[in-house]
Structures are given as C-alpha cells and as structure tokens.
Amino acid sequence: MTPTIEIQNITEAECLGLMRSQPVGRLVFTENALPAIRPVNYLLDGRDIIVRASQETWISRLDGSVIAFEVDQIDPRSHTGWSVVVLGKAEFVTDIDQLVRLSDPNHRPWAPGRHDRCMRLRAAEITGRRLALAG
Amino acid sequence: MTPTIEIQNITEAECLGLMRSQPVGRLVFTENALPAIRPVNYLLDGRDIIVRASQETWISRLDGSVIAFEVDQIDPRSHTGWSVVVLGKAEFVTDIDQLVRLSDPNHRPWAPGRHDRCMRLRAAEITGRRLALAG
C-alpha cells in the first residue's frame, strides 16, 4: 500500500516547542502594497517573536503593522515536516529593562551593521500544520 | 580576526540555479487582508514557478493576485546562506498542451487529495540575497 500524506493541525504548545528548535524564520509583511518576505534569526519571549535589527533597514518600517512570521522544517526525501505561522502586530521595544532581559548573547543578529532596534511580534494567533505519512 | 557577515545581491541567473536546487518554497500572499504564508513543493518553468493544488483549497483563491514566492537555504552553524524571492501575478493554467508539458512526474504534490489545478506564478521580478562570511 502506498503511504498517503496527511495534514494535521498542531497545538499552540507544540508550535512553541518546534519554534524553539530553530534559529531562523521568515518575516512576512507588505511593502509598497506588495507581499514581501525576509529570513531573520529570532528568539522566543513567551509567545512573542523577538528580532533585532538596525535602525535604517526595512524592519523599522514594520512598526505598528500586522505581520506574519513563519518557521518550518521539511524533509524533501520523506515529504514530511511542519510549518508554524505567528500572526500579530509588530512593535519596537524601548523599555531598557526589557531590552536588557532580551539581550540574549545567543541572539546576535547575523547581518552586519549596528542593531539598535528590537522588534517584538506580539503573537495574536499561532497556527501550525504537520505533514505526516499515514499508515 | 573575527569574520564579519556580508549581504550580497545575487544575479537572476544565479537565483534560478539556486531555486532549481530546492524542491520546497513558500507562497506569500494576502488572506482576509492579513499576510499569509504556506510551504509548497514546486517546479520551475523558465522563470515561472509552477505549483499544483486541489480545486477547493486556499490556492485557488490566488488567481489574479500579485503574490511572492520564497526559497532559502541557511546554515545555522556558519550563519551563511541565501534567499531568493519571486514576485508576480498568479494565474491558472488551463491549456491542455501546457498542462501535459508541466505534468512532471517529479512534481507530485505532497499534500493529499486531488490536484487538478496548476498555478503559474508569472515572474515579474526575481531578487536574491546571499549571506556570506567575509575575509
């Protein structure tokens, strides 16, 4: 019997666990009324996504926008994997106590330049889907 | 000397070569006025992205929309990798000769169900960025 592939929804708790396993995700937003996407490294703060960026870049323009953030891991051989999407509003952290707490040495931005902006994606909705081989 | 990371633009020819090396990318679109993203398997037809889908799914609603498609590969250890984004209009292939030509046996959709819709993302713009360690 050929195995078929099933799509299963993932609980929010499991989504958060999967996101903790990956260092890189993709910010999805609108730029000049067109869909845009950029990979970034990130960390989780509770249910929120934290991304560091320099002041001059595209990321600063997201302040106040509703954006999405996606993390996935897909095995092209077995055709299995998962994808988690966080939807919410982007805001910039200015509170110094928060900035200190979020200054995780494991979360150095990979891109060059100064990174004096800290973006929080305040998670309003977290959804996940798993592709799995069914018996 | 600590290596620094540089961002370099990639030529369109190189973008196409990199996309040919990967079976899975991400469709980026707008759903109920909110940013949305879904991983899909795909193939390249010239500069265009071809995705197969069932008639009933979200993908059918993209007909005529401007959407983005992203493929990336990032090594979390070395902090190097690349990301390619294709921007253009989604249209559905109905011409039978084209459908036959595009019925690549290596491009079976992974998700379950019937897949009688064939979407072409007509590439208007292809951009790529490479993160690379600089000397």
TrEMBL record, chains A, B:
This is Flavin-nucleotide-binding protein. It comes from Saccharomonospora marina XMU15.
